[in-house]
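Input sequence (207 aa), recorded before submission:
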Amino acid sequence: MAHKKFAVSPGFEEGGSLFKPEQLAMLGSIVGEDAKIELTTFKQLYIEMDESRMEDAQAQLRLVGLDIQPAGFFTKNLIACNFCRGAADAGLDLAKQLDQAIAGKEVPSPLKIGYAGCALGTSEPLLKDISVVKMNKVYDVYVGGEAKGIKARLGELFVSGISEDQVIPLVTRLITVFQERGKKKEKFSKFVERVSKGELYKLTGHE
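Predicted structure, token format:
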């Protein structure tokens, strides 16, 4: 019996990206006792289950409001803060749109993208590969964060003070550049170091 993995996330509401108790209860009953559920560090659950039942299970999970994405070398769902300043001030609508724009894209190495609705950065955005931080009415974008290993480091400021309508085009362009120029299994932080921020500015139109 062949098993295969996929990823599940809860989507966004004011208060953050949180699984509801009824969703978790339904998750267990839908995937069955023989499935394995792995808690990841990027707010997704990995489900490993019988491949022959997977399509039907995914359809049922979507009905209870869960988002389904591929597991592996793909962009992950947006890792966001809890929007403690309120939906409008923290940019919840933009976060939802950004999540839809970035999740599930095939990339050379798994890509984690963070979002924080204010400078407090409770979602630890600077430890993500790409991160967006709302600064009052404008946004800063950082690149190259690395949370794991002895060479862990904070992301570097890439662009500062851009408008809301510039955020998604810039982040998706960074993903595209990584897809086109990244080496297989190359971490995004290493990619930024190899290509250089100066070249990334040119490739994303931010010279």
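Checked by second reader. Strands lie at 3-9, 36-39, 45-50, 67-70, 79-80, 113-116, 130-135, 138-143, 156-162.
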